[in-house]
Specification:
By secondary structure, the protein is an alpha/beta fold. Helix content is 50%, strand content 9%. It is built from 18 helices and 11 strands. It has helices spanning 13-17, 19-29, 36-48, 65-74, 93-101, 118-121, 137-149, 175-180, 186-192, 209-224, 233-240, 247-262, 269-275, 305-346, 352-356, 370-384, 389-396, 400-409; strands at 2-4, 10-12, 55-58, 83-87, 102-103, 115-116, 126-130, 151-152, 161-162, 166-171, 195-198. Strands 4-7-10-3-11 form a 5-stranded parallel sheet. A two-stranded antiparallel ribbon has the order 1-2. A hairpin with an 8-residue loop joins strand 8 (151-152) and strand 9. Helix 16 (370-384) crosses helix 17 (389-396). The longest helix is centred in the last third of the chain and has 42 residues, at 305-346. The protein is elongated.
Length: 413
Amino acid sequence: MPVAGKNGLSYMENDFKDKQFLQVVKKKFGIAGSSEKIFSALSILLQAAPTDLSILITGETGTGKEVFANATHQLSTRKKFPYVSVNCSAIPETLLEAELFGHEAGAYTGATRQKRGLIESAHNGTLFLDEIGDMPIRTQVKILRVLESGEYSKLGSSDVRKVDVRVIAATNKDLEFEVNQQRFRLDLLHRINNIHIKLPALREHTQDIPELVDFFAERVCVKLGLNYQGITGDSINILRSMPWPGNNRELKNLIETIITLEKGTMITPEILRKYIPPALPAYKSFEQPVGNSLVSINNSDFNNSSEMTLIFRSLLEVKSDLSDLKMAVSKIYEILKTIRSNTDKQEQYQTYEEVKKDDDFEDSSIDMKLETIEKKMIVLALKKHSNNRRMAANSLGISERTLYRKLSEYGLL
């Protein structure tokens, strides 16, 4: 009988107790994994699919957001109508509105004919807005209007059109953070978040890796006409120890490459090593001798992950502080070096007291007008450099042409 589920929806209790039913759904739509987190996401999908509520699917890149979106459409009452997928981050901002809403001829430079928008193409069906977190604010306003009233206008037209679409959105960003940064509209977030399906990163459900490996391997073997011979337990342990920043997509690409090049043979650690990028962490761990360790660690210490996290975080902070201190000392050294260099240069010139001792300045009744001082300095410079005008000009910090003009002006030629 129907029972209440999350988000106020209902589902058939027997459906979720029937593992065979779940396996059929997973196989049909390419969903692999039997962990609690995958089961939770799948159960929300099955509850939400028959409704017309908007759905937000979140998760890191490669976790299968588009797979879940497609499955939602195929299990909905709109499955006989179009399913239109739009990657908001792949279309330039200047073209996104035209692609979504369409345009009239002459709406902008290059719009030589009328174009039907993707929203219109999805009428009565499902519109999947992938990477909605990258959608420009201006476009968000228009999408909100579609969600609220089903109304929109083509670019270059004032005519209001009506459309009936169900919107499924997906993103790898934290939309609440984006709202705080004023890059995403809060009202749009509330509107698309009727149902929230959160897909876990692969590192959060590594117990599903054996099932995922078999799923990906069997699919490529069927495609290539190969016989999949399986994977060893040691190889599974290696895969479980890897970080998987690309999640399911990264694992899929790795398995497809191995199966294709190794012709479906049993995947052993020796074969796996050939295809794991060197930058990834080693799959074996060795206990560090206590005498060589900064912090003494034994295997039992890893049972308390919170304490180990604090230790490693403290070590990273110390390393960061030392790095900052080193940079600061380096900058101070460069400043001192510059000051010393400038001081050495200044010592090459006579001080005012030394100039005063010169015979030409001994007369205390000397005229201290600027022109007179300038004339005296020119005379001194020429005298010092034996009337070499170029050297005298350099010592005065002026060009030779300026010196010649001054000599003419003061009648010293």
